[in-house]
Design a protein that fits this description.
16% strand, 393 residues, Aminopeptidase, globular, eight-stranded mixed sheet
């Protein structure tokens, strides 16, 4: 982070940095966000093609934050990609605004640096990639609370609250959540063994295939996280699907309506002992380290170039703003948690009443519709009722 802040300071014409902060139940978190926009003072960010990248969501995956630094070095032109023309790169980047979250889970990263090398959760033991609202809280038969604790409610964690706010306000065209543990290029869905339908989904698959050919040397798995990932069951040869519930990428695609939402797994050493998390998730020799950063930084710059081409612009223009509306459940969850963070002791009342509040809100809507229907029916009957004189003839 010191290197990134110094880099931003050296290139104020291209890079800016802000720190988002949030607190909940006495737990404080912050997230640094670096924005790249060449000639950023001349244009509105919303007029350009927008890309949001998140690294370091799991503390033990240190290589992901190293990739974030490498990408920022290339964006600032302090490093260059091999075999890429500077003029072509500049022409590509002029059309983009890129927001980079280099370390989403700062508190979890501090635990790892204090030698808890297998820690993937945040500073109070919640897996940030299980704390989102799409299919939140569902537990598979092999559920491991140490690995996958989803928190007490969707968006209970300040980190996920901030990331949701960033995504909804920035409104990117492409989202990539970067992890390590294997080599894979995933699109939705994580919580079920299917991929989305439609033209956008086909374009996502084509883009991932291109990345696999150019940069992953055909080693990467491609498909949905829920349909592609498997793991060996203990004590036998059973190969199980690994479904993940409450993930960021499923939310970004389903609720935030980001047209292209991906999860990339950039490195994994399967032969490592389960207790040797550092070796399992991070390259430990300089040659592999530089190869991983070289291959994957090139992959991201391919996304920067091809992403706008693969995404149908006419479909983007025709999207209804209503597609961006968050569901009632998500709104209430986010609203109540944000209010609970702001008002100290009152937060427990909001947390305990969250489910009841959602139920009452639904009942209120239903009763309002029924009352309106009854009122309109009564008016309709009165309109056609014959008038009867009150005076006897």
């Amino acid at each position: 982070m010191k290197e990134i802040k110094a880099l931003v300071h050296r290139h104020p014409d291209k890079l800016t940095i802000e720190t988002m902060e949030a607190r909940n139940k006495g737990y404080f978190a912050e997230i640094p966000v670096v924005t790249y926009c060449h000639g950023r003072n001349k244009v509105n960010d919303m007029s350009k093609f927008r890309i949001l990248l998140s690294f370091g969501q799991h503390g033990r995956e240190l290589i992901t934050t190293e990739l974030a630094l490498r990408i920022l070095l290339i964006l600032s032109e302090e490093q260059l990609l091999p075999h890429m023309d500077r003029a072509s790169l500049s022409n590509t980047l002029d059309k983009l605004v890129i927001k980079v979250v280099p370390m989403e889970n700062l508190n979890g990263r501090r635990l790892v640096e204090d030698r808890d090398l297998c820690e993937r959760r945040n500073g109070r033991g919640v897996d940030l990639n299980r704390n989102w609202s799409v299919d939140w809280g569902k537990k598979e038969k092999d559920y491991n609370p140490y690995e996958e604790n989803p928190g007490f409610a969707p968006f209970s964690e300040p980190e996920t609250q901030m990331m949701r706010k960033l995504a909804l306000t920035f409104d990117p065209h492409i989202w990539v959540n970067v992890h390590s543990g294997m080599e894979a290029l995933f699109m939705p869905y994580d919580h079920k063994n299917t991929t989305p339908d439609g033209q956008i989904a086909q374009q996502m698959k084509l883009l991932l295939q291109e990345l696999n050919n150019l940069h992953c040397h055909q080693r990467c798995m491609i498909g949905s996280g829920g349909g592609s990932v498997g793991k060996q069951a203990d004590y036998n040869n059973l190969y199980l699907r690994y479904l993940a519930h409450g993930t960021a990428t499923d939310f970004m695609f389903d609720k935030a309506r980001i047209p292209m939402a991906f999860t990339f797994e950039i490195y994994g050493y399967e032969a490592a002992s389960p207790k040797d998390c550092f070796r399992m998730f991070n390259p430990t020799d300089p040659t592999t380290f530089n190869r991983v950063l070289g291959d994957w930084s090139a992959a991201f710059f391919t996304i920067f170039k091809l992403g706008p081409e693969y995404l149908d612009k006419t479909e983007l223009r025709s999207r209804d703003n209503l597609d961006r509306l968050v569901s009632i459940d998500d709104y209430l969850e986010g609203y109540l948690i944000e209010r609970s963070s702001r008002y100290g002791k009152k937060r427990e009342v909001f947390e305990l009443g969250m489910q009841e509040m959602r139920t009452y809100f639904r009942l209120f809507l239903l009763s309002s519709v029924l009352l309106m229907f009854m009122f309109c029916s009564r008016l309709s009957k009165n309109k056609f009722r014959p008038l009867v004189s009150a005076i006897s003839l």
